[in-house]
Write a structure and sequence with these properties.
The complex is a heterotrimer of chains A (225), B (283) and C (229). Chain A contains ten helices and no strands. Chain A has 225 residues and is mainly α. With 283 residues, chain B is mostly beta strands. Chain B is built from one helix and 17 strands. In chain B, the strands form two sheets. In chain B, strands 3, 4, 6, 7, 9, 10, 12, 15, 16 and 17 form a ten-stranded mixed sheet that branches. Chain B has a seven-stranded mixed sheet with strand order 2-1-5-8-11-13-14, with no helix packed on it. Classes of the chains: A mainly alpha (225), B mainly beta (283), C alpha/beta (229). At the A-B interface, helix 3, helix 4 and helix 10 of A face strand 14, strand 16 and strand 17 of B.
């Protein structure tokens, strides 16, 4: 893979884009009693990767291609934001995604300044911002998909250590077992990213929707989502 | 309806397990001169049999205009069974309103050879039109593998209400697999799209449906009605304010009775509809 | 360092960080400052909450500022990360307030209560004050740490409680001043108007220095060795 250093930079949780404040629905899943050990966490992460992970990765791949194109960035970004809106019924999830997208653009503006980033919406969805960021860092669409998929499971896994009394080694072993799955999902996302916006996947995750809304309504919580 | 699906097929009363049934049903409505909705086309083919409701007072659905036509979908045969392909075209004409309900739950059964069964529904609702579709649950028997593909095109001011309920397995069964695809566009712009796969290993994770046998949703798209703010439901259910306007309710439950309670409560909150309106009545 | 992205210099407020351990009275100090300065300076506040929006709610409930001028940043149980390593959420909150209520003179950023090593990034704030209280013990100031040693101002709060916790305030101030190599230490009680005036005067002077181009952020320095995430 070309530009591996750029991918490591983009996918690093230490990139200061505020991702550490989110659990991806895990805190609410723990509160609902549906995740309470490493096995249920691994299932949760697998389901998350297959749904919001695949959708976001496909959009990130598409956004990366769009950004690499010579023109038409703004309209294409808007179409991808709209596609994510139509595929994200939970308003709490849409808010989180757009908040993370805005934060990422704020960081990229100094980390990898590029006029194409200025064509993004004021609060683009996270996957759209990530795809654009991948492109300005010289990464291809598959790398963008990988970056999104990695964050879709690594973020909640890191949150799990704070939310549950889990062995951090066992938790990371669960992440490691998801590698082959993430590889398959990245390939699929890459293919979707090469297709039309209308054909982007829309994998539903009813529990993630329910968690997101329940969490947003809580006044006492560790994570923002 | 797509050309490949439009092949005329004879109704088969009792299909052999390996038989491939093709069924094509259709409803078209328009607005009559008397201001009432007319059923200008009603095409049935087993197992999809359509019957107009007896004339009478309009069903007590707040979202349903008094001039609506009411049609029952009844099953003229078992199934669909694996390999079957059902198509259903619903065209609601300008200014008309259709309430579509179902007599009994749909039972999806497996084919001997494990073939996929498929239901394709194509819906258009023209200017000022209303479609309220309240089917009974889909029960996915063990071994069944089914795809439901619903595509809806709404005019800018059309109203659309859809309930979907899935129960994995009959009593004591774990159940088969189903993928429900639903996409809605308004005035040509996609506004809602969800593909829900249930009964798969991924779906059983605590991110999608967990160990819950019953899952359902309710989509209420009514441009004339503001989104009710902050409707909260108990249990694993949520009212979701959609980006393009309207609301979706998603709910998971241990069984179909608990699921229906969630969805009825949500329907009341969103449209002011009494609970009994959504429950089954004899056609 | 270019810290003004998103906010033009004409709308740039003085960004003042308020750090210190849990329970030393950061929220109360901010409410006190807002009361003292609201008539002369245009103000806004960003809180960094750990588990709830308690701090934001406390400030809103005091009525010292219109509620929309108080923003809560959620820190995912990591308050020191949000003010030091990954400041994006706080920066956006500050910039949104500066743009939404332009022109602002002062934005107060309250850190989530943390330990003695947590200090603000100079990319987020122009100056920071570090808050200790007498109830935490008279020897805390001697322990030092980057916040105590090199914050622009060290506040020793709740001096009215000193007799009850057997702390000698003068001694504590002297120890702290020594730990800070003579830099300013302020003994504060919200029940002693003179100390509140002194705090407000310090902020006024700082704002004046910033407007005159005489003040830039000074980093208290890295926290104690600490591995995170």
């Amino acid at each position: 893979m070309a530009n591996l250093a750029a991918l490591l930079l983009l996918a690093d949780s230490r990139l200061p884009a505020g991702g550490y404040a989110h659990s991806g629905g895990l805190e609410a899943a723990v509160a609902a009693g549906l995740v309470d050990d490493v096995a249920s966490l691994e299932h949760f992460l697998a389901g998350r990767a297959a749904t919001v992970g695949l959708l976001g990765a496909a959009v990130a791949a598409a956004a990366c291609r769009v950004t690499a194109a010579p023109q038409g960035h703004r309209a294409a970004f808007t179409a991808l934001d709209d596609a994510l809106d139509a595929r994200t019924p939970s308003p709490a999830q849409r808010n989180t995604s757009r908040q993370l997208g805005r934060q990422l653009v704020r960081v990229l503006g100094q980390v990898a300044p590029d006029p194409r980033l200025g064509e993004l919406a004021g609060q683009p969805h996270h996957a759209v911002a990530l795809g654009a960021g991948a492109a300005v860092l010289g990464l291809d669409a598959r790398a963008a998909a990988y970056a999104y998929l990695h964050e879709s499971v690594a973020g909640p896994a890191a949150a799990a250590i704070r939310l549950l009394a889990l062995d951090p080694f066992a938790t990371h072993a669960a992440l490691a077992r998801l590698r082959a799955r993430l590889d398959r999902l990245a390939s699929r996302a890459d293919e979707y990213g090469a297709g039309t916006v209308a054909d982007l996947p829309a994998p539903a995750a009813p529990l993630l929707d329910v968690y997101a809304e329940a969490h947003a309504a809580r006044t006492s919580r560790l994570f923002a989502s | 309806m797509t050309a490949t699906l439009g092949r005329p097929a004879r109704a088969v009363a009792a299909p052999a397990p390996a038989a491939r049934m093709r069924s094509s049903a259709a409803i078209t409505t328009d607005l009559g001169a008397d201001g009432r909705t007319r059923l200008v086309r009603l095409r049935s083919e087993a197992p999809q049999v359509l019957r107009p409701a007896r004339p009478g007072p309009a069903p007590p659905l707040a979202a349903c205009p008094p001039a609506a036509a009411h049609v029952w979908l009844t099953a003229g045969a078992a199934g669909p069974v694996g390999g079957d392909r059902l198509t259903f075209q619903i065209d609601v004409g300008a200014g008309s309103a259709l309430l579509l309900t179902q007599v009994a739950a749909t039972l999806l059964l497996p084919a001997v050879d494990g073939a996929l069964s498929r239901t394709e529904v194509r819906i258009t609702v023209a200017e000022g039109g209303t479609l309220i579709w309240m089917p009974e649950p889909i029960i996915v028997a063990s071994g069944a593998d089914h795809v439901t593909d619903v595509q809806v095109e709404l005019a800018a001011d059309a109203r659309f209400v859809l309930r979907e309920e899935v129960l994995l397995g009959r009593h004591g069964e774990t159940g088969g697999q189903i993928e429900q695809r639903l996409q809605v566009s308004r005035a040509g712009r996609p506004c809602y799209r969800q593909d829900l796969a249930l009964g798969t290993p991924d779906a059983a994770t605590p991110a999608i449906s967990g160990a819950h046998r019953a899952s359902g949703s309710l989509l209420v798209l009514d441009p004339g009605q503001a989104q009710p703010p902050g409707v909260r439901l108990p249990g694993l259910a949520a009212v979701l304010a959609l980006a393009g306007g309207g609301s979706a309710v998603t709910a998971l439950a241990a069984d179909n009775l608990a699921l229906r309670r969630h969805l009825d409560a949500a329907l009341r909150a969103l449209t002011g509809t009494p609970t009994e309106a959504t429950t089954r009545r004899t056609p | 360092m270019n810290r003004s992205n998103g906010t033009s210099s004409s709308t740039r407020a003085l960004r003042l960080g308020v750090a210190g351990p849990v329970g030393t009275g950061k929220s109360s100090l901010i409410a006190t400052l807002c009361r003292a300065l609201a008539d002369e300076l245009a103000l806004a506040v960003v809180t960094n909450d750990i588990y709830t929006d308690e701090d934001a709610r406390f400030l809103r409930s005091t009525g010292v500022l219109p509620v929309e001028r108080i923003r809560a940043v959620e820190t995912g149980a990591c308050p020191h990360t949000a003010i030091r390593d990954d400041i994006t959420m706080n920066l956006i909150a500050v910039e949104d307030l500066e743009q939404g209520f332009a022109p602002l003179d002062l934005v107060l950023i309250e850190s989530g209560g943390d330990n003695l090593t947590a200090t603000f990034s100079p990319a987020l704030i122009d100056a920071q004050l570090f808050v200790l209280d007498v109830a935490g013990g008279g020897d805390v100031a001697r322990k030092g740490g980057p916040g105590i040693a090199r914050a622009d101002l060290l506040v020793i709060n709740k001096t009215d409680l000193a007799p009850y916790v057997e702390v000698d305030v003068e001694r504590m101030v002297a120890d702290a001043t020594a730990a800070r190599h003579g830099a300013r230490v302020l003994a504060l009680s919200r029940h002693e108007p003179a100390s509140v005036r002194a705090l407000a005067d310090w902020v006024r002077e700082l704002r004046g220095a910033q407007l005159a181009g005489r003040h830039g952020p000074v980093d208290p320095g890295a926290p104690a060795p600490h591995v995170h995430r």
